[in-house]
Every structure is written in C-alpha cells, then in structure tokens.
Design a protein that fits this description.
101 residues, mainly alpha, 4 helices, 74% helix, 0% strand
C-alpha cells in the first residue's frame, strides 16, 4: 500500500472530522447528503427546475417589500416635515401675540 499524498491525507482527515461521528452507523453518501444545507440553487434545480422560478419569485417579493418600505419612509418624512412646519407656525403666532418676548 503506497502512502497517501499530503493533499489526499488532508482531505481524508477533514472528511473524517466532519463525518466520522456517523461512520459506524451511516454510509458516507448519506452522511454527506445530511451535511448539506439543502438550500443551494443546485439542489433546488435538481428537483425539476423549479428553483429558478422560486428564486425569481423571492427576488420579486423582496423588491416589492423594499419599495413598500421606501414609500413608508417617504410618507413618514413628509408627515414629520408637515408637523414641524405646523409647530413653527404655532410658535410664530404665539410670538406675534405676546410681542416677541
């Protein structure tokens, strides 16, 4: 048996660190499947191509939410500006009534 090259040995050790705890009861292929997040595009597309449509819908939803948040912030800023203007007008009338002092 020839010795493993350093890169292969390193890869083997990394695999055993990740999957070693399951090695006695679970085949390596199952272990590696369990270790994925199952949210990558490759996995989503492997189920029939629906992943890209789903991603497009999610992106469109995120854009709509961002636009809604921006409109909400604009309305809030407009309300605050109007409130500040009314307050300034009230203070100006009060000063005019009291003679500025």
């Amino acid at each position: 048996m020839e010795p493993n090259p350093p890169a292969a040995e390193h890869d083997r050790r990394e695999f055993l660190k990740k999957a070693g705890r399951f090695a006695a009861v679970t085949p390596p292929v199952v272990t590696m499947l369990l270790s994925t997040s199952l949210t990558t595009d490759a996995i989503a597309r492997s189920g029939g191509g629906g992943g890209s449509r789903r991603a497009e819908r999610q992106a469109a939803r995120a854009e709509r939410q961002a636009a809604r948040a921006e409109r909400k912030a604009e309305r809030q800023a407009e309300r605050e500006a109007a409130r500040a203007e009314r307050q300034a007008e009230r203070e100006a009338r009060r000063e005019a009534r009291t003679g500025g002092g």
